[in-house]
């Protein structure tokens, strides 16, 4: 069977489109992110101890990262605002940090909200990057997010 010139051109075009589609289907590299997980909330001598797992995938180290959080009680009312200072977060590093919140009762905390980033500093880091690129997760049973 002989194919005409136009048929050959069409087949070549279809093959090129198919290969371009396969290349486009490959997953894109993940966007830069600061991952913050509320891993646990446990009663302590001082009140409630919150354990966070933070991973800096921003592509640059942070010399300072701190966030103001709001704690909501079981009725959904803001109980307090406080700042958590995660200090230095090297690029590509995962770090576990604990904070004791005096007078807080873990069983009465229904939600933790990241209100804003009070500090976000590092070589070549946009000060808004900590909040813009923040991704949150909770393994504690307490709602956690932005």
Kindly summarize this structure in a few lines.
The protein is an alpha/beta fold. Helices cover 17% and strands 51% of the residues. It has helices at 5-25, 129-132, and strands at 33-44, 47-57, 62-72, 78-89, 94-102, 111-121, 134-138, 143-145.
Helix content: 10-25%
Number of β-strand runs: 8
Q: What is the strand arrangement across the widest sheet?
A: 5-2-1-7
For this structure, the CATH topology is Immunoglobulin-like
Structural class by sheet pairing and helices: alpha/beta
- Global Rg: 24 Å
Principal-axes shape call:
elongated
CATH level 1 class label: Mainly Beta
- Biggest beta sheet summary: 4 strands, mixed
Which whole number gives the mean pLDDT? 89
Write the CATH architecture name.
Sandwich
SSE order, as H and E? HEEEEEEHEE
Low-confidence stretches: none
Output the number of helix runs.
2
Domain tally: 1
Q: Termini, distance in Å?
A: 64 Å
Q: How big a fraction of the residues is strand?
A: over 45%
Description:
The chain has helices at 5-25, 129-132; strands at 33-44, 47-57, 62-72, 78-89, 94-102, 111-121, 134-138, 143-145. It has 146 residues and is of the alpha/beta class. The strands form two sheets. It has a four-stranded mixed beta sheet. The protein has a four-stranded mixed beta sheet with strand order 4-3-6-8. β3 and β4 form a beta hairpin. The protein is elongated. The mean pLDDT is 89.
